[in-house]
Amino acid sequence: MLQPANRKIGSGLLGRIRAKVFENATCREISTSSRKQTVMPAWVIDRYGSNSLLRFTKNSMFPIIQYPNEVMIKVHASSLNPIDISMRKGYGAAALRMKRDPLHIKAAGSEFPLILGRDVSGVVMETGLDVSYFKPGDEVWAAVPPWKQGTLAEFVVASANEVAHKPKALSHRQAAALPYVALTAWSALVNNGGLNKDNCKGKRVLILGGSGGIGTFAIQLLKGWGAHVTATCSENAFSLLKDLGADLVINYKALSLEKQLKDLEMFDFILDNVGGRSEAWALNLLKPWSGATYVTLVTPFMINADSLGVANGIVKSGITLGSKVLKHLRQGVHYRWAIFSPSGPTLDEITELVDDGKIRPVVEQVFSFSEVPKAFQKMEGGHARGKTVIDRSTECL
Description:
The protein is α/β, with parallel strands linked by helices. About 30% of the residues lie in helices and about 25% in strands. The chain contains twelve helices and 18 strands. Strands 5, 7, 8, 9, 10, 17 and 18 form a seven-stranded mixed β-sheet that branches. α4 crosses α5 and α9 (about 300-310) packs antiparallel against α10 (about 310-330). The chain is globular.
């Protein structure tokens, strides 16, 4: 186990073996003794399928730091996202397997037992040799990429560049609601959509699907940057979105959503969290030849990879994206796909926004660690009003 500087090492034979690493003229002691803890409690699946396959175990393999840029985090809270439901069913298995094992060295099914969960808020327990930005005891948050073991466990290991210091204004329970949805929204709005605090003022933005985790974050971010935001949701989420700052809220269940939106002034930017039939008409709501952009988070890449294999899936997805980009470019608007992108530096920016009071988490319901299957059932019911959080800080399972 890697030991932070100045920590005493045990008096046993192995514990007395020390390696001294000089970094910037600082002597760091490393224990070569074996780890005392080898297993931990976690929720796992042993194959893809329904909610009944979720299994609690006290004997999940304890994660270890394998690379010098990694940190180990003790999980205080996590949260669920739609991708957790999809991954439990096998969504993206081919592409994620390729990412985990690009040389095909491991046998099929080597990802099992698989721990789901992407969000984490917790405390750093241990750091790799190259990590100087974090130290044991730091309160941090992160969104762990889907090809890594997840956060529905006592501990999780992540790359330091995926982790950031937790906002001081938030509890672990609150903080766990934000990382994955915030980074996904940031990927769509900033990385792919080109929006930022300097060019957003006065822009008319439409968010299709505004009441979930991504939508509620995007509304706050865009309003903080001065945009005029229209969002769609069902009627019982109106007050929530208005409270978050949305200028106009449209009931997608009343009359024709397309007609309601066509009666409004045209938009500079559309974020589509819904997909499906909305893409066929949504781009007609954009101002042509003005740099207007449509970004969708509903893409066929994973489905293509699962059904056609990774190589053929990439080719088909590339052709589909390219043809749509050219088609809509001829009509004077930009078409983009966006996906989640892990980033500690982006979380640093979001931490500042949270601590400045410009972003707040929207937590719909909190479940204890023993209630993870119930949390999955709740998520599968749809109609989210913010995030479903798993709090394990008060439990000893």
